[in-house]
Automatic annotation (TrEMBL):
Residues 496-577 form the DYW domain. The keyword Repeat applies. It comes from Davidia involucrata. It holds the Pfam family DYW_deaminase. This is DYW domain-containing protein. GO terms for molecular function: RNA binding; zinc ion binding. InterPro entries: DYW_dom, PPR_At4g14850-like_plant, PPR_rpt, TPR-like_helical_dom_sf.
């Protein structure tokens, strides 16, 4: 009977088997069983989730024929379906036909306008809703706040947030705070989002997993190590560490903020782990240069019966590269298709070029690119250029640079690399048309800068920077350090850099950051954390190794290529970056 059919359709729709729900509705219709309102609501909701407006319109026609055109529940589900499918005019027609609207009717239509970016129309309805005698609920306010902040109107969103309790006598809930946090993060306002997160807790509003999963990615950098510990403390206080998605995000963020030991501790404390858990710690281990730890984790993962996926293979090929295990890396790459039926993507090809390149097998790397099943992208040619730079193959370096310039003709750093490689080969600059940076931001992109946190304040330095107090002391310290560093007698690599040479552009920004951190308190900083926008040059890399050994400190420096961890005169990148 209709109740049995409806129960089945509703069950499928609510358990993410929406296509089956719609197929069953079709069978019910063909069997001559007339659907009731609940049947229609379940089927229309499935269309909303699938974003299937054509099927939704068919169901709308069925609803009209069966006399459910003015039914409140059916009407609400139609408004929701049309809104989620971007059919706002159709949604509004249904909305206007419903004479006795409830809060769900208003919320669905307001949500549709907000989602489509029509916040003005949403606000008009929001006011009409209150005039009609239907008081907005916390969901209504949250929908409005989310709509405004996601469309860039932060002031209006904050105004609504503050009016909730004052005008609507409704206290903001966790979802209200989450809307603000997610919105600020979407708009690139990380500090404001973290400020809202702290304010939320000061108002005794309990963050949930959605809150944590929003703020953690904003802290996945070397400047945010203290913030990560703060968030982890909140996770422990709120007993959210048992939620696997939260633990996985913590493992990732801790690794990217420079604390792989913390990531491992969280991993070890988890009662259940999925493929994301394993992949995250494996990738973190590779990021920190811990190749053998990554390979051990890979073996343990397979022993526990988990199948590696695309992400796993990128990390494991990279781990083989770091460990110098060329044959094993090639075997892993082959096993992707042979054993796991996974087609390699560009990220896997890039990892393979690094595998060959790190060991100096440049011809093999080039042949591998030539035999690729897909067109090589920027990352693949950049990987080959790195190998050429380290191992001194000028011919291939020129070829790789020219391919990179074809892909990104406006990239100032690539233009500089092309000019340098051409100069080394004796090719005239006249043979290359280089576009001069026109806009101000293009000039800034080609300028090296570094950020460092000292005493809870982030300081930014640019190459040749002389604007900071005590500039003379910084430059004197750098000159003194430079005189103590032993330069290699011979150089096998190519002296080509993304950044202007110091003789032209001034002292590089990371050296200024080193000096700023260590002058006056050389023993106070056991850990120096720096973020740089360009690839670190060879001389700065050598300087960082010397400082880590001489001052007994650890230096974490994230540049455009990788994370460098300098300790006792060595770097986790193995001098290949």
């Amino acid at each position: 009977d209709v109740f049995t059919w409806t129960s089945m359709i509703s069950g499928f729709a609510q358990n993410n088997r929406r296509n089956q729900a719609l197929e069953l509705f079709q069978e019910m219709f063909l069997a001559g069983v007339e659907p009731n309102g609940i049947t229609l609501v379940s089927a229309i909701s499935a269309c909303a989730s699938l974003k299937a407006p054509r099927k939704g319109k068919e169901l709308h026609s069925v609803a009209v024929r069966l006399g459910f055109a003015e039914d409140l529940l059916v009407g609400n589900s139609l408004i929701d379906m049309y809104s989620k499918c971007g059919e706002l005019e159709a949604a509004r027609l249904v909305f206007d036909m419903i004479l006795e609207k409830d809060v769900y009717t208003w919320n669905s239509m307001i949500g549709g306008y907000c989602q489509a970016g029509y916040c003005g129309k949403a606000h008009d309805l929001f006011m009409q809703m209150q005039e009609s005698g239907v008081p907005p609920t916390v969901i209504t306010w949250n929908v409005m706040i989310t709509g405004y902040i996601q469309n860039g109107d932060e002031d209006q969103a904050m105004d609504l947030f503050q009016r909730m309790e004052k005008d609507g006598s409704i206290k903001p809930d966790t979802a209200s705070w989450n809307s603000l946090i997610a919105g600020y993060l979407q708009n690139g306002q990380k500090n404001k989002a973290l400020g809202i997160f702290r304010q939320m807790q000061s108002f005794s509003v309990r963050p949930n997993s959605v809150t944590i999963l929003s703020v953690l990615p904003a802290c996945a950098n070397l400047m945010a190590a203290k913030k990560v510990k703060e968030i982890h403390g909140c996770v422990l206080r709120r007993n959210l560490e048992s939620e696997r998605s939260v633990a996985n995000s913590l493992i990732d963020t801790c690794a990217k903020s420079g604390n792989i030991v913390y990531s491992k501790t969280i991993f070890d404390g988890m009662s259940t782990r999925d493929i994301i858990t394993w992949n995250t710690l494996i990738a973190g281990s590779v990021l920190h240069g811990c190749s053998y730890a990554a390979l051990d984790l890979f073996d343990l993962m397979r022993k526990e019966g988990l199948k590696p996926n695309r992400g796993t293979f990128v990390s494991i090929i990279s781990a083989c590269s770091l460990a110098g295990m060329i044959d094993e890396g090639k075997q892993i790459f082959s096993s992707m298709t042979d054993d796991y039926h996974i087609l390699p993507g560009l990220e896997h090809y890039e990892a393979m070029i690094n595998l060959f390149g790190r060991s100096g097998r440049l011809e093999e790397a080039f042949d591998f690119i030539e035999g690729m099943a897909i067109e090589p992208d920027f990352s693949v040619w950049a990987a080959l250029l790195t190998a050429c730079r380290i191992h001194g193959n000028i011919g291939l370096a020129v070829y790789a640079c020219e391919r990179l310039l074809e892909l990104e003709p406006g990239n100032a750093s690539i233009q500089r690399l092309v000019l340098q490689t051409h100069a080394l080969c004796g090719i005239s600059d006249d043979s290359l048309i280089v576009r001069k940076p026109g806009k101000r931001n293009e000039t800034r992109e080609s300028l090296g800068w570094s950020c460092i946190e000292v005493k809870n304040m982030v300081h930014t330095f640019v190459a040749g920077d002389k604007s900071k107090p005590n500039t003379e002391i910084l430059y004197s310290w750098i000159k003194n350090i430079a005189g103590k560093i032993k330069r290699p007698d011979s150089h096998d690599g190519l002296c080509i850099e993304e950044e202007e040479k110091e003789e032209i552009g001034g002292i590089h920004s990371e050296k200024l950051a080193f000096a700023f951190a260590l002058i006056g308190s050389p023993r106070a900083y056991q850990s120096i954390r720096i973020v740089k926008n360009l690839r670190m040059c060879e001389d700065c890399h050598r300087t960082a190794k010397f400082i880590s050994e001489t001052y007994g400190c650890e230096i974490f420096l994230s540049d455009s290529k990788c994370l460098h961890h300098f300790k006792n005169g060595h770097c986790c990148c193995g001098d290949y970056w």
